[in-house]
Predict the 3D structure of the following.
Amino acid sequence: MTGIQGSSRRTWLLASVGAALAVGIALPAQAQQLAANADAPAAAQQVSDPAASVDQADAAKAAQTDDIVVTGSRIVSSGFKAPTPTQMLSAADLTRNAEPNVFTTIAQLPSLQGSTGTSVNVNSTSSGLQGLSSFSLRGLGPIRTLTLLDGQRVVGANVTGVPDISLFPQLLIKRVDVVTGGASASYGSDAVGGVVNFVTDKRFEGFKANVAGGITTYGDDKQYLIQAAAGHNFGRFHVEVSGEYDHEDGIPSPRFGEAGANGRDWYRTTTFINRGVTNDGSPQYLVRDHAQAYQYTKYGLITAGPLQGTAFDVNGNPFTFQYGGGTPAKNAAGTVNGCYSAGAFCLGGDLSGNVGNGTTPQSALKRWDGYSRIGYDIDDNNEIYASVNIARVDTSNTPNPGANKTGLTIQCSNPFVPASIQAQCVTAGITSFQFGTSNGELPRDITVYPTRSQYRFVLGAAGKVSALGSDWRYDLYGEHGENITDIHVENITLNSRYAAAVQAITVGGQIVCADPVARANGCVPLNIFGGATPSAATLAYISPANGPFQHTRQTQDVVSVAFSGEPVTLPAGPLAVAFGGEYRNEFYHVTADPYGNGVTAETPNSAAYPADPVLNSGGANWYAGNYHAGRGSYNVYEGFLELNVPLFKSTEAGRANLNVAGRATHYSTSGTVYTWKIGGTWDTPFDGIRFRAVTSRDVRAPNLSELFAAPTTTTLPSFTNPDPNRPAGSPATLLVFQNTIGNTALKPEVAHNTEVGVVLSGASWLPGFSASVDYYHIKVDGVISTLGAQQEVNLCYAGVTTLCGAFNLYTPAGTTPYVNVQAFNLASIKTDGFDIEMGYRQRMLGGTLSLRALATHVSHFITDPGIPGTIAVDTAGANSGNTPHWKLLGTESFETDKFTFNLQQRWFSDGVYANTYVVCSAGTCPTGRSATDNANYPTIDNNTMKGAFYLDVGGSYKLTPKFTAYFKIDNVFDKAPEPSPQTNTGVDVNAALYDLLGRFFRVGVRYNF
């Protein structure tokens, strides 16, 4: 591929694909029958690496006469063992865990860190990630983990390119292979952390069904699941279909205060209190429970001036607010003596208006999934097939209740102000006051409703042909995928309309909005003093039924061909070769409502969003959820070659092989990039002991969002010009436009991944036992990250010249200076650690005992922003993030012909809030430190964040040969999450690590015929 450029590359690849299609359509009959595992593409298959688990070892023995295909490689060869570690979950593993979404079971693997699900991103309105289930290996994020379905790419469910596992067909999954290492040479972009590959059962015959229900110990998140699948051979045709519906209620928002949803009592508004003092010998930060944000309360609070500290109850009656240990200074600054002005927090007191606990702990979810596949056997060795996957996922969540407002200026003459307060205004000689409110009077919380619909069609051929004196396997397919994402937000306010509605006056004996322009355009006043429910007309004005809306269409088109064979036999065994090519096109187009996007030719005003002079025609009118229109596309051409070279094979030296691969990839946006891997395995002459090692160069190409982000423009009125050679007369501060845009000049991130391990499996001296230990090291350079407008300009003049083209502060007269906020290849990530896996299986007491344990130790996870003046931060062991030092999954099961009983343990180690904190107590903290040290390594009085241990119990009983009843109890001890404090009173739990649901009960019945 290296010598093929431009249109020649495209001609070469398309010619190869066309030739392969011709071969697939007119395949000659073969004498040899297909191997048992050849019913799917070579790239997707893994009978298993015997070292990965006991179940895999047994599978390998059962299939010892067949070709063993490993997901971590494109090689298909008998006895081949890939050097890249692979963990497997079988269909039995998924069944035992009894989760309505297999995503949950797979995400429990210790190597998967930072995966997103229905309990993550629940505090978000605008991200589009709410309810999205996607995997993250090594804590590197979903965008650096490649997820495949039968070895094939799946259209993204978000503009970041990551798929939603909830949209996958789940009842026909035969196993899931997790490659815990770089695999870009085999599969292309995104396989930096590794690959998660779902392998479906393409020869399923019969009928099976599953019905299940569940509920938490708190009586919420009610769930029910209905699944069915059928398959049958009609001569040379094999047809299979499956369908499923999953309904999960989620957990409702607890709204205001500290009381958790339906009796949960673990929320304590734990917060980092910033004393604002750095060099007095005491810690700058204090970790405290029951923090109170004193700028607002549930039904309103006067926050500055002579009336500061006057709050209002549900009936609108004024009362003296309790600031915990603080007292209001009643000055214009709104100071509260005895509290912490740096964070505007008090401790204790009236916490009823706190909003951080109001986030939905678990999104609601409804999932529909339909899948069908039809295959036609041309002969015993070759098949053509087509598959269709149509699925939809609806989710919903409350990011926060109310929509709290601070810094409101209210006129004392406002007719909604109680008479007693108006009188106090006169006495104090004021005509207005500052006001803050949680908006507890609003009857319904902000709710985000993302809907994702997937349409995926695959046409392919797979099998074996003879050529050049040997057999060659091939896998050829074309795929078209389409994802439609619609996001609606309800019960959310328009900022300008809210601001107009709270400013009321009396005209002709009626209370109306003070602004005549707003009044002429439908403004209805809002009483924010107390908890009286606003009128329907008021609610329709400030939070219209047509809230923020975004419609996104993403498409993915793929043509791929791969061949694998053994053309030459060397002294130590056959030389195995795999090669192929792929074309891929990714596209997205997003439209949004004009109130969020701004009025443009693509999103004009409409009957649903009429023009309103109170609103900004440039957009950004909503409290949150200001979506924007955009579009973009790119295409990829790539080819790969992989070799497995047997090095030696003897009784004295054992058996060794060398595995090498290379891929050339051309992106229409960023040019050509090369990836490779070099690895090998050595089966030593010592019984059951094998070594493996692999090093690779991997890439992640910039995604659609980073390349073609929907543009937004905001005004920065007091922007600092740091140019040391600023022309005479040029102002030091100026007004600039901040344009948030994509960056089509981005280059792929480049990673270097190394793994070295030892495997014990199949030893005659320890039957039934297997174990492996692998060390990994990953370094990612050119990590795509975003800077603020002021950062970009400052860094340019500090010498980071790559940023200097992103702005112009000296535009021609009559035009406005601008700064383009974009993503750049600036940062780097480095992580290393160990994976450990052990398994044991033995027949006893009339059944089979199976034990398995997997553990991952993260030694370091260092992120360097790549910006002068910043420091690299190690987040390994920071339990406020995704990478605790240790994470463990243990399973024990006993199975007979009649029943099974299963135990599972999930554990991660104690950690810290952040590794940058310096722990000290009053009188012992360092003094005289520089401002840089205080900023980068702040002092704190407590830096311990406990880990967690969860026990799950399950079992099944065979009622009849066809019916099996089962149960599952997750988090048996109802372990509560640890607080993950912030520097505000927001959501203070880390759903990426901790269980927020509590004890969960599930029961169900399976039918197999």
In short: The CA atoms of residues 145 and 810 lie 43 Å apart. Confidence is low (pLDDT under 50) at residues 1-68.
